[in-house]
Amino acid sequence: MRKLKVLSAAILVGMTTASALAAVQLYHTVEGTALDLSFALEEGRDTEAVKHFLATGEDLYTTQEAVLPEGESLYLTACSGCHGHNGEGKIGPGLNDDYWTYPKNGTDKGLFETIYGGAQGMMGPQYGNLTLDEMLKVIAWVRHLYVGDPDKADWLTPEQRANFTPYEPKHGTK
Ligand code: HEC
């Protein structure tokens, strides 16, 4: 009995530290369980963009062109092997159109949850590969790769939608 009490107290403490980091609750894309942010790499946890994201679920980088080169290089290292150099899809589904297996990937929060916590099979959690800040930069790049109808891209701001030009693939697709 005593052991049980100690154990549940320990679980409770664990849960509070994880959720203390985030005002928005983040969930695993497939299992729907709460994501534990304490697995995140130490570096890149407290940038302005990460703090803003954890408080609001919005990714400030999606409107900052200056982060695109870094987002691109992170994408080419961490994602393109499975999703294609231009996000056209390979082992993993395309990320450059408006079809999502998991519709929540049309939101910054949902896309972050999929990257951080993974989905099924080969789509493993990325918290050991990318810092939280880097995940937000990858999201900006994934949005930049879009070649679909801007009206179906809920994640675009009205200004981005009005000025939309589809991504011009600069890498070969093979
Ligand atoms: C080892 C291969 C692999 C790597 C690396 C990988 N993915 Fe995936 N990804 C997959 C597979 C396979 C799926 C399909 C899983 C599913 O349907 O549950 C997937 C699914 C996804 C989805 C869901 C798409 C949808 O239609 O809802 C997103 C978003 C995604 N990946 C983004 C990324 C990003 C961003 C990176 C890099 C940080 C990345 N993935 C790295 C293989 C990979």
Radius of gyration: 17 Å
Largest sheet at a glance?
A: none
Number of strands: 0
- What is the CATH T-level topology? Cytochrome Bc1 Complex, Chain D, domain 2
Uncertain runs are none
Count of discrete alpha- or pi-helical segments spanning 4 or more residues: 7
Q: Identify the CATH class.
A: Mainly Alpha
H and E string: HHHHHHH
Tell me the fraction of residues in β-strands, as a range: under 5%
Large-scale geometry = globular
**CATH-assigned homologous superfamily:** Cytochrome c-like domain
What compounds sit in this structure? heme C
State the share of residues found in helices, binned by percent: 40-55%
CATH architecture: Orthogonal Bundle
Summarize, please.
With 174 residues, the chain is mostly helical. It has seven helices and no strands.
Description:
The structure is a single chain. The chain is mostly helical and 174 residues long. 41% of the residues lie in helices and 0% in strands. Helix 3 (68-78) packs across helix 6 and helix 5 packs across helix 6. The longest helix has 19 residues, at 2-20. The chain is globular. It binds heme C. The site of heme C (HEC) has 24 residues, from helix 4, helix 5 and helix 6.
